[in-house]
Design a protein that fits this description.
112 residues, mainly alpha, globular
Length: 112
């Protein structure tokens, strides 16, 4: 699972669904690598993402980022607001969360 797969969803009809899976897999890799490094991170329900659980996804995803950012000393962003209909704001959201993944992955090492 590479970071490149989670920077932005692919511009296809299933791009967001594919992104949510890849993104979830990267969170699992972070949890595993953190455990290897002696840190404990909680796993939250961030996949699958549906219209019905979108708000829960955003809240639980924020919690995962807060926890992983804390162990790596990363200043995180508020990721609880994502409007997929506003491309400019959505692109900013995807980029901000990607940067956090990248920073934590670098901190933990292990090729994640």
């Amino acid at each position: 699972m590479g970071l490149a797969q989670i920077i932005y969803p692919r511009p296809t009809p299933k791009g967001f669904d594919e992104w949510t899976w890849d993104h979830y897999q990267h969170h699992l890799a972070i949890i595993h690598q953190a455990a290897t490094a002696g840190f404990s991170l909680n796993q939250y329900q961030i996949w699958p993402v549906t219209k019905e659980n979108f708000k829960d996804f955003l809240q639980q995803h924020q919690q995962m980022h807060a926890e992983m950012d804390a162990i790596a000393g990363v200043q995180g962003s508020d990721l609880q607001d994502l409007d997929l209909k506003d491309k400019k704001k959505a692109d900013a959201w995807f980029y901000l969360q990607y940067v956090e993944h990248q920073s934590v992955a670098q901190f933990l090492g292990g090729g994640i």
